[in-house]
Design a protein that fits this description.
This is Nuclease inhibitor. By secondary structure, the protein is an alpha/beta fold. The protein has one domain: Barstar-like (Barnase, Chain D), CATH 3.30.370.10. The protein contains five helices and four strands. Strands 1-4-3-2 form a four-stranded parallel sheet, sandwiched between helices. Helix 3 runs parallel beside helix 5 (93-112) and helix 4 crosses helix 5 (93-112). It is globular, with a radius of gyration of 14 Å.
Length: 131
């Protein structure tokens, strides 16, 4: 697999085999969201708050989250590791679609500010379809 950090971000991409090592090699800060714990919108927002280090107010709605993710003080290059992405989308299709829309819109807005936010779908180590 080509290294995703070697080119500009393009929507939600598959995470490299060792995303932390790859991100460090390209000087990309990496944040992780554990989607395996998200069972409804409230728990998803809690996981987003923890993983993205956004204030509680940012998780009151999708619009608030988008505003928090696109603040001018965001890092120049960072990645969001979506752990358990495939299973989450299977279990919670509507929430997955909403989350995807906000994250990809934030990625687009940040790109207009000459910033890069990589969205990386991470799968369980034991998932043979990933490798």
């Amino acid at each position: 697999m080509l290294d995703v950090f070697a080119s500009p971000p393009q929507g939600i991409q598959e995470a490299p085999h060792d995303p932390r090592l790859s991100a460090a090699g390209h000087q990309v800060a990496l944040r992780a969201i554990n989607l395996t714990c998200a069972t409804d919108e409230r728990s998803l927002m809690q996981e987003l708050m923890r993983g993205l280090s956004v204030p509680l107010e940012a998780t009151q709605s999708w619009d608030h989250l988008l505003a928090a993710l696109t603040q001018p003080e965001q890092a120049e290059r960072y990645g969001v590791l979506l752990q358990g992405y495939r299973d989450f989308c299977y279990r919670q299709r509507r929430l997955c679609d909403q989350m995807d829309a906000v994250l990809t819109e934030a990625q687009r807005i940040l790109a207009a500010q000459n910033k890069q936010m990589y969205l990386l779908a991470a799968y369980a180590e034991a998932d043979p379809k990933h490798f």
